[in-house]
Specification:
alpha+beta, Arc Repressor Mutant, subunit A, three-stranded antiparallel beta sheet, two-stranded antiparallel ribbon, 5 helices
């Protein structure tokens, strides 16, 4: 398959034979999960073997699992520009809420004519920042509750 650096790829479960997916899921989940495991590899149609990173193997497993569960999968480059509706859908918030976040300067955006566009990479960064803030807040609350002996209070 040719490289598609700026194009979304969508895989629909109906594209694949159900029996083939069953066998692939079974194969992928039988792989050892220990530290001493052999690096995963791909085999091209000519039989040439290429070692792949474990993270990519896990990603491929996730894709196959989703297809096996009759869920479509989209692969989108992080430099893709999304509309505000697409960005809101990605973050699972309303479009007006997203617009408020954009206008506050929390997430960068560009305008094309009158329309805002948001990079997927910036949405991922925003999610990561929220996750870090939540963890930090929970950690501080736990430390405070521990310090004042109220951690186990009901």
């Amino acid at each position: 398959m040719a490289s598609q650096t700026n194009q979304r790829i969508t895989l629909e479960p109906s594209t694949f034979n159900e029996t083939d997916l069953d066998l692939l899921v079974s194969f992928l989940h039988q792989a050892p999960r220990t530290v001493e495991r052999t690096p995963p590899a791909l085999l091209d149609p000519d039989g040439k073997k290429q070692i792949i990173p474990f993270a990519l193997y896990e990603t491929l497993t996730t894709i196959v699992d989703a297809l096996h569960q009759n869920k479509g999968v989209s692969i989108i480059p992080t430099n893709t520009q999304l509309t505000t509706q697409q960005a809101a859908d990605y973050l699972q918030i309303s479009r007006p809420t997203l617009v408020k976040i954009l206008e506050s300067g929390t997430i960068p955006f560009t305008t094309v004519g009158r329309h805002r566009r948001v990079l997927l990479a910036d949405l991922i960064g925003y999610e990561d920042q929220l996750r870090r803030e939540r963890r930090s807040y929970l950690k501080s609350q736990t430390q405070q509750a521990t310090a004042d002996n109220s951690y186990f209070d009901h």
